[in-house]
Each structure stands twice: as structure tokens, then as C-alpha cells.
Amino acid sequence: MTDFEWKPGYLKTHKLKASGIIAILALRYLYTSLFIYGFVHKIMRGWMWSDILTQHFTKRLHELLATNAAPGSIETTVALWQASYLEHFALPLVMPIAWVVTIGELIIGVALLLGVTTRLNAAFGLFMLLNFAAGGYYNLTIPPLVTISILLILLPTGHWLGLDRRLNRKYPESPWFK
Asked: Does position 143 have pLDDT exceeding 80, yes or no?
């Protein structure tokens, strides 16, 4: 799949493949925009130097502990696990988490925008999304974003449009640019 070329002749003879690649690249840039937006939002709100994330975590912890689900149900079990995650991991490490999330969103966004180390950064994005869900911030956007993350990990989108192809040619043994 790394043989894709942005040449008119290639695009005409491989219409279906080119359409699929363009669709996946559109998803990559949508995914990228969400991380860049997240970074800008957190910088503008002062996440890295204020207690705003502590407030979010504390509020969500209380919401999870106040669940009205039946005792022993899957919903209650998940809510209690998420509350435990917040109480024993996220709240004690709130400032390092605020920095990792904010700077991580910048790194992921820029790398995916440039198409450099795309697979690695898609995996980092997936890790962040799963941690958001573990902390009780699950919503209907998580499954499609997880699916996009997996596609970006599996497919060589940085070779199709980005620096990964050039860097892979220069450093063929490096796993970063595959």
C-alpha cells in the first residue's frame, strides 16, 4: 500500500484505491484537528497551570459515585471502576496528567499534520482516548475515534501524504517511519 502516488496517471488507473486513500487521509486530518483543537483549548483555559482539571476530575468522580444503576449491574461496575481510576490515579497525578495531555495533543496534532511518525502518534492518540474513557469521559465520539486511531496505526498514511515515506527511505531500518 506504500506504492501510492499523487500523479494523474496513477490516480486515473487506480480510482477505487485512490478514493479509499483520500477518504482515510480526510479522516486523519479530522482526527488531527481534534487534537490541535484540544491543545489550543487547554492552553487558552490554563490547564497546565491551574486547578481546572482537578475540578473536572472531582466533579466526574462525584457523578460516577452517585450513579442510580442497580447494584451489581454492568453500569455500576464500570462506574465504580472509573471512579477508582479517577480517585487513585488521575486525581493524585492531576498536574502531570494535565501536562502530558496538553503537550501530547500538540505532539500528536503536529506529527499527524506533517505525516511524520503517524503510526506511533496514532497509537499515542489511542492511548489517550482510552484513558479519557477510563476516567469516565466516555461519549459517543470515542468509538469512531478509536476506529480512526486503529486505521491510522494499521495503514501507512504518512507514506501517502507526509514525511514518513521520505524518512523511511533514508532510515529503512527505523520502526518510526514504517
From this structure: yes
